[in-house]
Amino acid sequence: MTGIPIRRPYPVLTKEDIRQIHEAAAAGLERVGVQVGSAEGRRLLREAGATVDETTEVAKIPRALVDEIVKARKVRVVLRGRDASQDADLDFNHVHLCNDGTGPLTLDFESGERRLSTSEDLAQSARVSNALENLHVFWPMVTAQDVPPSVRDYVDLKVSLMNTPKHILYASGASGDQARRLVRMAAAVAGGEKALRRRPIISSVQTTIAPLQHDGGMMDAAFAFGAAGVPAAIFTMPTPGASGPVTLAGSVAVAAMEFLAAMVECRLANPRSPLIWGCGLAPLDMRTTTRASGSPEHGLTGAAVTQMAHFYGVPSLVGGFDATTSVPGTQAAIEKFSQGLSVVLGGADLIVGLGLLEDAKTLSLEQLFIDDEMVRMIRRIADGIVVNEETLALDVIEKVGIGKTFLGQRHTMQHLREEQFIPRLIDRRSYDLWARDGRRSLEDRAREKVKEALAAPVPFPLEPDVVGRLDAIIQEAAAPAA
Amino acid sequence: MEYGIKRGVRFEILSKTDLERIHAASLHVLEKVGIRIGSAATRKVLRDHGCVVDEASTLVKIPPALVKEALGKAKRTITLAARDPTYDARLDGTRSYVTANGNGAMTVDLDSRERRPSTKDDLEKSSRVIDYLGNVHVHWPMVSSMDQPPATVHLHDLEGSLNNTVKHVMYETGVTLPDAKRLTEMGYLAAGGEEEYRRRPVTSCLQCTFAPLQLDGGVMDASLFFARAGVPLVFFGMPQPGATGPATLVGSLVVGNAEVLASLTAVQLHAPGAAVIYGMGNAPLDMRTTVRSGGSPEHALSGAMATELAHWYGLPSCVGVSATAKEPGDQAVLEYFTGLSGPLLAGADLMCGVGLLEDSSCLYFEQIVIDDEIVGAIARLIRGDRADEETLALDLIEKVGPGRNFLAQRHTLQHVKSDHFMPNLIDRRSYETWAADGAKSMVVRAQEKTRWILANHEVPPLPADIRKELRGVIETARRSHPDARGRGTPVA
């Protein structure tokens, strides 16, 4: 499945801005450094020439080492689906969309009640995602709160694999052991470790802790994924005003320091490991002390980080279509649009965020369809305009002449579909027709789409023996450690 | 004080070659196909300057050199002055301004929720809401005073607006010469005299062309008058791709551009140096519903392209946005956000306008407040960001170090208000706090905000003698037009 082609990315940063941010990040790595919790990470850095203080775990990385890693050529990352037609090729020229993930809460589709998420919610979210034309990668949208914590991460992966043939991006793996178990599950589905390396059907998201800290287990997991050829996104998320400078450029510099340090460690551990720079840089709302996820600043930083990531030769994964509100509606639409617009126009390689509310906490199945409609509209803007003889249509204008209509022209029928966004949820009928037809809101219409999607069969179901192998791995995790 | 939305980053749609091709195609249309002009006075101006005019068919063919000559006379910076100069909209290419949407015929009553014909009271109330809001910069009479005698509706609309906002008032009701004279007279009165008005025009008139390739007689008679009277004009093309223009957006831009260039040419030859803004609102016909697709991505792209074309000509742009939604909610947001963001990212000088639904025909007061919030968010997006020593804050990053926070730093307090969008209507509190506070939706909060504005916001009144004179103009008009007149309601 191809992503959304981007012809002219929206330039949030100038070349000089990019250079300045990189200079600040490189100087910061030398002067301030990053706290590296992984002993393996510290060893790799020390051996490569960094100054490492084992008491404070702070590693100061020399400029030359950063430049050497950054200098390497651009490395595209292909996120493979079980269905090969749904591969997401992060080739620096297309935007791909992914839903939001790991929400502990769900708005019950029948009752509307806000309650803990279950594995059934996860299965449903995957099936609804299958129906979205602009959703290229699946992130387990909720965590199965109905299974014991010891196996929850593995059940989430199993349920996702069973219900969607799309690539699965996965924010889990808090230790090397956990990462290796997740890799075994993916290998069981892909047909072995070699097959998984050739076509990695999962990828991982590893989050750093701002400002300037790498959790030990998180980096050990990243090394384990890298060793198996599973792409890893290093997700940096300083909050401007709290865990980063309030100015967006300053927080982008902090994020760049955290990412560059991780990139150096990962490349030293596995020189060819597929890496993605993930970033969710949303400011602290000082009045409510919440993270302003669906804010214009979050959109701007996503576009800026995309420019920085491409400068470093890696694809970007950024937040988009987030919202702080806990219900679908006007506020959700404004928040999601204000953030999603600039990351799509900015050409982000992978955008995560569709379908959850409350800053990636709460699942709403209808919101998935609403967000998809937004993506479709923004996509049309990103497509832009082609000027040529055919689109100028001077001959048609001359033929139709003054005061007449273009309705019956062949040119009109030929170009309608390519020129016009065809709404799925937006209802453009007149007030009278709309009122006679039940005055349904866009949310009502989204609910109908959800029902249709849930009734559709799951494409590419897993073979029963593969499911059995996954269950066996999960059983191991459930058993008390020997 | 700086007014309007400051621009930083810009999204580009057309290349220089694209612009040249569109311009050349429009010139070809004007020279070979021509344009039908209903105004004899306008045809005379063009004939006197060498155009080929066929009086029987009212067809005028305009040579390219004449268009070029007229463009050379046009004003590059236009200030839409406000009663209070703080709110002057200076269209100089560095800032964007948003107007109210105008001339709706229906209103959904804020209290009874009934959908009914609009009244002068609705007009006055909506003018006060616009006056209060920070992200709507220029006023436009939002609804028509349908409860007033038909011949004077547009005069009541202007009077109600001038009395209830200190912002600039743009209208689109100067569609005959007598209308133009009365509206101009009222503008002169509000400004404190003709001389004062010519220096600081507190009103302006948007004139629509008729696609494909027609200029209405009354509209053009009025426009020639406005141009000499010092009233700034917008010539607003609005071919509908697929119906009154080619289905391709570029093809429709060629048609609309020809219409706007023809109007501008006539006016600049008649009144050299007149203030003319380049306007365009091409929303395609939705073939499935045969409704104009206001707020569609194509509407946004067309506005963005028209802006690029206007700037290439050295003219300020005025482009349209609207929504087909029938009530406030997700659809209205999707349509307004789409429609506003495209042109604003491309640097539109003036966008008209916000607050109406059903493609500019129905007023919901709360939608004005919701749209104000949307514009606020977009304003932050188009300002973009910059990297310098102050914003990069490397010293601060070093001082704070790994694992600590930036909350109490002076740098944080200094920049939070300027660097972060401060919402008015978006509620970012936790679920628990929000639920305990009534679990109010944004639409409900917008209704509450509207009631608060109407109860608390006062607009400095015009002096009593001027108000009396304005009423006198309306009274004279009522007496001279005893018969009811049907009036069309063009849309943005």
Overall radius of gyration of chain B: 23 Å
Biggest chain-to-chain interface with counts: A-B, 128 and 124 residues
Major sheet description of chain B? 8 strands, mixed
Average pLDDT reading of chain B? 95
Question: In total, how many beta strands of chain A?
Answer: 21
Query: What is the end-to-end distance of chain B?
Result: 29 Å
Write out the strand line-up for the largest beta sheet of chain B, numbering strands in chain order: 1-7-18-17-14-13-11-10
Any guess at the CATH architecture of the largest domain in chain A? Alpha-Beta Barrel
Mean pLDDT across residues of chain A: 95
Kindly report the CATH topology of the largest domain in chain A: TIM Barrel
- Runs of chain B with pLDDT <50, length 5+? 484-492
C-alpha-based Rg of chain A, rounded: 23 Å
Number of helices of chain B: 18
Helix/strand/pairing class of chain B, anyone? alpha/beta
Low-confidence stretches of chain A: none
Number of E strands of chain B: 20
Q: Please summarize the sheet with the most strands of chain A.
A: 9 strands, mixed
Specify the CATH homologous superfamily of the largest domain in chain A. Trimethylamine methyltransferase-like
> Helix share of residues of chain B?
40-55%
